[in-house]
Amino acid sequence: MYSIGMSDNKLEAGSGFPLNDDPETLLLRVAGARDREALARLFSLFGPRVKSMMLKLGANDAIAEDMVQETFLSVWRKAHLYSIERGAAVSWIFTIARNLRIDQFRRQSNKPYEDLETVTIESAEPSGSMMIEQKQVIDRVTLALKSLSPEQQEVVRLSFLHDMPHAQIAEKVGIPLGTVKSRLRLAYERLRPMLEDLQ
Amino acid sequence: MTITHHPDIATLMAFSAGALEEPYAAVIATHLAMSEGGRETVRHMTTIGGALLNDEPNAKLSDKALERLMGKLGDERIEVPSHTPSDVPLPLQKYLPRGLDGVRWKWTGPGVATADLAWGRDGRSRLMLLRVAAGRRVPEHGHGGQELTLILQGAYKDRFGVFAKGDIADHDEDVEHQPIAEPGDDCICLVAVDAKLTFQGRLMRALQPLFGI
């Protein structure tokens, strides 16, 4: 029924799809035309990566699989709230996965995040973001992340991917809490030109 | 509203990663609701999460995963929730359903009152309001654990300057300072603190140099 093989790991971003099938276009098609095929493609592109992120939290395979389902069900239901000004589609999908992670694994409410999203949407902040740039932005930030020192990369990954609070990172890495914070600050200073440049 | 004092970048990164306990996340979200510049910074940080997700390896999904998803797609859409106007920013409304006027203050010391805000689950941190009359000392110091203080009304002054509405104090735990509420309206702060130290204990410690107790 759907032409995309789900366990086919050969499907990488940009391969096998027409050029205009970038993630932002797919997401806007889900939003505008309720395009199920576009959602299926987004799922094939990012579902396996979202699962990998969930597995990093110690979730078993079944729970990680459920979290992927929940993430893309939310993408389907919230796609109309996405706009190109909010950044790359993969960043938006990250925030959805993150909010579900807060709910499920941290056993806390993601309400502060949802309320802030409402404030952001209602304030309709202007931004000069252009769709064509989003892939470049992600590529540039990815490269910049890899150019960080191994120590800086470690704290950034433990925070964003492993969902670890600073105190837990300090314990795991065996460094003082203040060092965790200073590494994160330095990492951000290095990334900032790339992050701000994209607007 | 001009925001002069911003959260530590490391705190904003933890917020963006989703790695803060709810009281701290609530304080940061409330601050960001008052700070357009802060929201822009956090939007930039989200791209870090996006790039990391984009770079994740492909974990194998079950063979039926796509079919399962497609079977669940309905017409339901999640809309931006409607909300009524309030004197508190949206992320704080869940904790203060009757606004600042509806707060049941508890007297904690001369010119100082507090109110605990409920946030559902057990945790190691607390979310509370602190109200300090003009000229009184704000009893919050670096006595261990992370502490975030957001000014909702009035202002206080310490060696870092004047903290007014929308400003946030996010100091390292070993920083000592002695904020005094500025003249005018009572200074009302939203505070997230480590629960291990009770506020009363903190207050007593703050008063120690004054009374020699």
Automatic annotation (TrEMBL), chain B:
The UniProt entry, under Pfam families, shows:
Cupin_7
Q: Which domain of life is it from?
A: Bacteria
Q: Which CDD domains match?
A: cupin_ChrR
- According to the entry, every stretch annotated as the ChrR-like cupin domain falls at 102-192
Protein species of origin:
Devosia soli
Source lineage = Bacteria, Pseudomonadati, Pseudomonadota, Alphaproteobacteria, Hyphomicrobiales
Q: Which InterPro entries match?
A: Anti-sigma_ChrR (IPR012807), Anti_sigma_zinc_sf (IPR041916), ChrR-like_cupin_dom (IPR025979), RmlC-like_jellyroll (IPR014710), RmlC_Cupin_sf (IPR011051)
Specify the protein name.
ChrR-like cupin domain-containing protein
